[in-house]
Amino acid sequence: MKRPLSKRLATWILRTITGLLWGLPAGLMPVLVDRLGALGALRWMVRNLPRYERMLKDMGPVRGHLVATFISMLNGCYYCAYAHARSFELHFFRARQVLFPLDEHQMVDLIVLPDHEVKARLESAFQSARLPEGPPLFTRLVQMKYGGVAEPAGPEDGHLRHAIQMFEVLNFCGISTAVPLDGAHDPINKDSDLKARYAQARLEGRPLAQEQAAPGEPSSG
Asked: Which of 25, 48, 116, 209 is least buried, going by the fewest C-beta atoms within 10 A?
């Protein structure tokens, strides 16, 4: 059965927006339109996208995409967890020129584990990567999502609370249908050279973050 014109038009608008922003038309947009309706999906995007982009600006793309990844993992959404883990991996690689100890597939595969085991494995990876802000961010999201934190403690908590609410909707859409995984939901997805270098580094098994000496430390070579 052919979809109504209003839904086809709303889907085209949303896929065009994500295509312009990230260099790919996000595969989840038709599902968002079907779940919220044509006008509802457009209103939802107008209300949430600017706040989400402000979070990425204020927290930085590495931490911001970790927020989206962690929430999606906690909700069990492979589609969104992969899209933002991929974004995190690319930003981490561009900033450090080394690979994060877990690739985007390995991060997403943690979804099937209990939350305490997910936290333990993430702590090990972040310690190896010398990215100490990762585990506290995960812990704070768990507290805010499940612990009944009444009021945000500061501006960053406000970003986290909005992200939790925003990804409740996106993750529901991602879980309810078998949407194929697509690329990074970030402008970094447009950087074809970076993606090629990242893929080659993974293929060649380049040194991971824990294998590169910290500033001031002797290298192992």
From this structure: 116
